[in-house]
Amino acid sequence: MALKVGDTVPHFIAKNTQGERFDSSSVIGKKPVVIYFYPKDDTRVCTEQACTFRDKYEEFTDLGAEVIGVSGDSSTSHQKFAQKYQLPFTLLSDHDKKLRNLFGVPTALFGLIPGRVTYVIDEKGIIRLIFDNLSGKIHIEKALQMLKKIV
C-alpha cells in the first residue's frame, strides 16, 4: 500500500553511499527530510536532478532539512556518481526495491522505468508532499516550496 500525504514514514534501513548501514531513525522524526526516488545514476535527467539538488543544497540545509536520494543502483555506483558530481547528500541503494515498495513508488512508462517521486517529510516524520513527475528539476522547487511552508 502506497504512503500518502499525512502518513508517518515507517522505519527503514538501507545501504548508504559508502556501503554502510543507514537507519532512517537517524533523521526521520528529528528534522525535515526530502527523500527523492530516481531511476538511475549517471543518466541525463537523473544527473540533472541530482546536480540541481546539489546546487540548491544550502537552501535545504538553511531550512534545517536533509536531502536523501534513492535508486536501485549499488552503493559502489552511488559512490562514483556522488564523487563525479560532488553530491553533498546521502544516496541510498535500493537494489531489492524494498524502499520503493515501502513508499509505493510507481514505475513509469508501462512499468519499464523506476518512478521519479519526491517526498517532503516534516520534523515529526509526517509526509507533507508527494510529487510524482518524470521531469527532474521541478522536484527541487516543489520540495523547497513545501519546506518553506512547514518550517
From TrEMBL:
One of its GO terms (molecular function) is thioredoxin peroxidase activity. It is found in: Thylakoid. Keywords: Antioxidant, Disulfide bond, Oxidoreductase, Peroxidase, Redox-active center, Thylakoid, Transit peptide. This is thioredoxin-dependent peroxiredoxin. One of its GO terms (cellular component) is thylakoid. Its main location: other. Belongs to the peroxiredoxin family. BCP/PrxQ subfamily. Its EC number is 1.11.1.24. Residues 3-151 form the Thioredoxin domain. PROSITE patterns: THIOREDOXIN_2 (PS51352). The active site is at C46 (cysteine sulfenic acid (-soh) intermediate). Monomer.
